Structures are given as C-alpha cells and as structure tokens.
Amino acid sequence: MNRATFTLRRDGAGPETKLRSDRLIVTLSLAGEIGFGEGTPRSVSGGETLAEAESWLLGLQPQVAGITSLYQLEAFVQERREDIDAHPMAWCALEMAFLDALARASRLSVERFTGLASVRGDYRFTTSLGDEEDESLETLVRTSFERGVEDFRFRLSGDASADLRRLRRVHALAAPRGLRPRVRVDAGALWREGGEEALRRLLPLRDYFWAIKEPGDARPARELSRLSVELDRVLVLDESLARLADFDAFEGSDGSYAVHLRVAKMGGLLRSLEVLERVRDLSWPLVIGSRLGEGPLLARAGFAVAAQARDLLVVKESSAEGLRHRRGPRLSFEADAWARLEHMGPGWGLEPGELSTGSIEARVEP
C-alpha cells in the first residue's frame, strides 16, 4: 500500500537578491512520485515561525501518511480546520506537496487534477513605488505606462509633503496619456503614532488613491471600518483576514473592503479557494499578493488562484524570486507589467533545480 512520506528543509531567498528570508520546502514521496511544497513565515507579531512549523509537521506525519487521494486531502483540511488555522504556513507547504505528487501521478497539472480553470493566460501586475527620488520615480512611472501598467502600490514615507508631491506626480504623468492610475497606498509608517494621527495625515492624500492596505498586524474590525468610512476609500484587508471565519467581523459593517490573498497566509490552495468564493459572494475586489522571500512554488500557487478569479482580480503581485522574464527589465521588486503564463507541466510544473532560482517564465507584453 502506498503511504506518503516527507522531508523538510529550509531554503534562503538566494544570493541574487539583497533581501534574505528563509522559507520551508517540503519534499513528499507518494505513489512513486515526488511532490514539492513551500511555505514562508508571516512577518507579524505572534506569527508562525519556521521552527514551530517544522515541529508541527513532523508530529503530523503519521496522521497524513494514509492520504492518497484528493478526496482524502480535502477531508483532512475540513476535519483539522482549527489546527491549520494555527499553522497555515506549515500546512500550505505540505498541501502543496501533496497536490504536486498526486497531480504528477495522474500526469496532470494541479489545475486539471483539481478541476480548476487553466492557469494559462494574461495577468495584470502592479508596480511598487517606494522612496525613489523624483527622477527615478518619473522613469519608473513612465516605463510602467509604456508597458500598459496603470496599477501602483505606493508606500507612504510618513513625510506628508513629500508623499503628496510624489502622488501628484504620478497622476500628472498619467494625464497627457489620458490615463487614470489606480494607486493603492501602504501606510504602515503612519501608524507608528497611532490610528488617529494616521487618519489625520491620510485625509489630505485621499484624492490620489482608491484603496489603502491595512497596516501591519491584525486590527480590530471597528477601527478598520472607521478608517474606510472616514477616508471614503476601500480598505484592503491583510492580516485581519487570514481565514474564512475572519469574514464574520466585516460582513455587514460600514466601510468598503478588498482582500489581500496570499496562499501561504490562508493555509494552502484549498482554503484560498474557499476564501475566494466568499469574496465572490460579497463582490469585493481581490489582490493576489506575495511577500518578500516567497519563491517560485508559492508564485505558481498564486497564479492557480488568480486563474479562478479573473472576474474579481484587481491585480496580481509577485515576489522577485517568483518570476523571471524572457525580456524587459524588472520595474520593481514586487512585480511588473502584464504577463502571459505559458503551459506548465504536470503538478506545479517545477523540478528540484528550479525551486530556489525562480523559473516560472512569464512573458512580459510591451
């Protein structure tokens, strides 16, 4: 009788990036096939650590050894929901490895094996703007427009006058082209002095962005609702929405919301698809996100979710390790341009030598 066995290892972000962030790689053997999965820690207080993930997974090994089908995997996810809530990154890595091995055994991609829409197609990405000087900012924004990118993630510095000047410049560069850039702001730097002060400093900027990303750690729903109402802008929920049950705090509340969905944060592909269906029921916008240190496996899983959300998707983000492009410069660490994902092989379509170097090839369309 076939029984699943797996091993764990840690893998760094790679010397090609200046940013280091370890991730957990699971290698699983099942039915004569090898499957791979990946998880990354969440950078929040009290978040799951790599050591905790490894310990939990090793204790779980006897309980998952008998999983040999998609049905059994789905049943385990339902039965152990609370455990997975506490260890989403760890389970994400293991579930991805199971899906990879099972799909490979059937000679199918993960999407075909699970009955999902094909991952092939075009995806719109974002350009991430940080603290670039005026000339660099203009070059980055102009290049984005030339490549058809009108979506920007803008990290506010906390210097109100500088942030206002730079936001105005993005819109000024768009005007001659007849464009209306879609700007989401990351205002984590403003929360260091408290929510009231952050709100006061955001109000003069609100004409230049359509959404604001939730800052840092999970926040009380009442505080986030007030922020959305006072700014009259969409609040992009991140750490406050990490599992299906978290919707309860926001459904029916005042304010407008979008969801920042990361496969590792949600606890794997199957739970991400549950969240996606709830987002669709609520008609909320969706951002398929990433974080520093994520590699090609998680980038690939993000595409699997994005392919099911073409009616909701605002933008697909991707980490630098997750994609490399056949042509064209990278616009930012986050991601760049429209991309066309080509046919992938069985499972996730990645081989052992590709797990650290980033080899999901996306052709950038000028």
Model description:
The protein is an alpha/beta fold and 366 residues long. It folds into two domains: 5-111, Enolase-like, domain 1 (2-Layer Sandwich), CATH 3.30.390; 121-364, TIM Barrel. The chain is built from twelve helices and 15 strands. It has helices spanning 50-64, 70-79, 81-86, 88-105, 110-114, 134-146, 160-174, 195-202, 221-231, 263-266, 269-282, 296-306, and strands spanning 5-11, 23-30, 33-39, 121-124, 127-129, 151-155, 182-186, 211-213, 234-237, 256-261, 286-288, 313-316, 323-325, 338-341, 360-364. The protein has an eight-stranded parallel sheet with strand order 5-6-7-8-9-10-11-12. Strands 4-14-15-13 form a four-stranded mixed sheet, with helices on one face. A three-stranded antiparallel sheet has the order 1-2-3. Helix 6 links the parallel strand 5 (127-129) and strand 6 (151-155). Helix 1 crosses helix 4 (88-105). The longest helix is centred in the first third of the chain and has 18 residues, at 88-105.
> Rg from C-alpha positions?
20 Å
Number of helices: 12
Task: Output the CATH topology of the largest domain.
Answer: TIM Barrel
What count of domains describes the coordinates?
2
The beta-strand count equals 15
CATH architecture of the largest domain: Alpha-Beta Barrel
Instruction: Describe the largest sheet.
Output: 8 strands, parallel
Neighbour order of strands in the largest sheet: 5-6-7-8-9-10-11-12
Low-confidence stretches: 13-20, 318-338, 357-366
CATH H-level superfamily of the largest domain: Enolase-like C-terminal domain
Which structural class do you get from the secondary structure elements? alpha/beta
Distance between the termini: 52 Å
* Order of H and E elements: EEEHHHHHEEHEHEHEHEEHHEHEEEE
Mean pLDDT, to the nearest integer, reads 82
Shape: globular
Share of helical residues: 25-40%
Reading off the top of the CATH hierarchy, the class of the largest domain is best stated as Alpha Beta
- Give the amount of beta strand, in percent: 15-25%
